Amino acid sequence: MSRNLKMLVASVMVMLFVGNGVCTSAAQNIEPRVHEVCGGLAYHKMISHGWGTVYKNGTIVLNGCPTWQCKNCGLIMVTQGDIYLGEMSAIGNYAILHGQEPLNGIYTYVYEADFYGYTSSNSLDGYKFFTSNK
User: Which helix (H) or strand (E) is 96 found in, with range?
Assistant: First the structure.
């Protein structure tokens, strides 16, 4: 756990009612639980990298769709919806490919992803989307 997270540990007073309704208090340490996802962050920092096509068992499942890459670990995600286009559309169908080299071009082909999913939301737990690397 990082130093900053350890500093968040706080003592709180908890009021307890025992048998006859007498109120007592006990101090407890509550430590926040933060799941580290990538590079010390609680999320993958997904940077926009143009467009992509994803194949599954030789069939195109996503074609000409927004492509993202994690700045820290190289994870690639291709999403059906573009969360920065217009009114932040839903992500929809998406595909994930782990641990890749940095993308250089504006178009990416993924021939077999590690994971295929769907969400009707414009966000995913463990991922934050950015239009630039700044």
Answer: strand 92-97
pLDDT recorded at residue 66: 94
**Contacting residues for 95 by C-beta, under 8 A, at least 6 apart:** 54, 56, 61, 62, 77, 78, 110, 113, 115, 116, 117
| Single pTM value for the model | 0.71
Average pLDDT score, the chain = 78
Q: Across residues 73-89, what is the average pLDDT?
A: 85
110 near 93, Cβ under 8 Å?
A: no
* Token pair 């940095």: residue: 102
Please tell me the distance from the alpha carbon of residue 81 to that of residue 120, in angstroms, as a whole number: 10
Task: Give the C-alpha separation, 92 to 107, whole Å.
Answer: 20
Which alpha helices (DSSP H) does the chain contain, by range?
A: 3-7
Residue type, 94: Y
Q: What is the mean pLDDT of residues 38-48?
A: 90
Within 8 A by CB and 6+ apart from 104, the residues are none
